[in-house]
Design brief:
By secondary structure, the chain is an alpha+beta fold. It has a single domain (17-171), classed as Nuclear Transport Factor 2, Chain: A. Helices cover 23% and strands 42% of the residues. It is built from four helices and seven strands. Strands 1, 2, 3, 4, 5, 6 and 7 form a seven-stranded mixed β-sheet that branches. A hairpin with a 2-residue loop joins strand 4 and strand 5. Helix 3 runs antiparallel to helix 4 (85-93). It is globular and about 50 Å long. It starts with 16 loop residues before the first helix and ends with a strand.
C-alpha cells in the first residue's frame, strides 16, 4: 500500500496497486476509480511538485528513460545520441518554476486504461491545463490554456510518464 498526497477530496484515500490491476475494465474512460485517482496523484506529483516547485529529483523518479515530449509550439524533445530526453526534461525542471506554473483544469481529466491480454500495462491521461505567469514564486496571471495527453506506463511495477503531448495552446487575451 502507498499514499500519495494531492490537494483534492481524495488525497487521504489509500490505494493498493493490486486492486488497481484487478478492478480496471476495458471501459472507454475511467472516472473515480482507483486507477483514476492513482493517475491524478501522479499528475499532482509531477506538476505540483516537480514542475511547479522545480523538484528535479521527483521529476527523474516519474519519467521513463524512454521519455518523449511533443509540443505544438515548442517542437519535440526526443532522445539524442548523446543525451536522453528525460535528462533534458529533468534539467528544465530545475528552473522552469521561476517562469511558469501549471494547473490542471478541474474536472477535465480523463483516464483510459491500456490492457494486453487482460493485464493493465499503462494508461492514457488526457485533459486541459492552464499556465500562469510566476512572480515572487507565486502564480499571478493566467497566460495560456492548453490540452494534453500523457502516456503512463508500468515499468517494473512503477508508473512512469513515457509520452507527453501538449497542444492547442491558446493565449489568454485580456479585455
Amino acid at each position: 500500500m502507498f499514499h500519495f498526497g494531492c490537494n483534492d477530496d481524495q488525497s487521504n484515500k489509500r490505494i493498493d496497486d493490486n486492486s488497481i490491476l484487478k478492478q480496471t475494465s476495458t471501459k472507454t474512460s475511467e472516472k473515480h476509480t482507483d486507477l483514476f485517482y492513482k493517475i491524478k496523484s501522479l499528475d499532482s506529483l509531477f506538476f505540483k511538485v516537480a514542475y511547479n516547485k522545480c523538484d528535479s529529483v521527483m521529476g527523474r523518479k516519474l519519467l521513463s528513460k524512454d521519455f518523449e515530449f511533443y509540443h505544438d509550439q515548442g517542437g519535440a524533445l526526443l532522445n539524442e545520441s548523446d543525451e536522453l530526453a528525460s535528462d533534458i526534461m529533468v534539467e528544465d525542471l530545475s528552473w522552469i518554476c521561476s517562469n511558469t506554473h501549471r494547473k490542471l483544469v478541474t474536472n477535465s481529466m480523463e483516464v483510459f486504461p491500456l490492457h494486453e491480454e487482460n493485464e493493465l500495462y499503462g494508461t492514457i491521461q488526457k485533459g486541459d491545463h492552464q499556465f500562469y505567469k510566476v512572480e515572487d514564486k507565486l502564480p499571478t496571471e493566467l497566460k495560456t490554456n492548453a490540452k494534453f495527453i500523457h502516456l503512463w506506463i508500468l515499468e517494473d511495477n512503477e508508473w512512469k510518464l513515457k509520452r507527453v503531448f501538449s497542444y492547442d495552446h491558446q493565449k489568454v487575451i485580456k479585455n
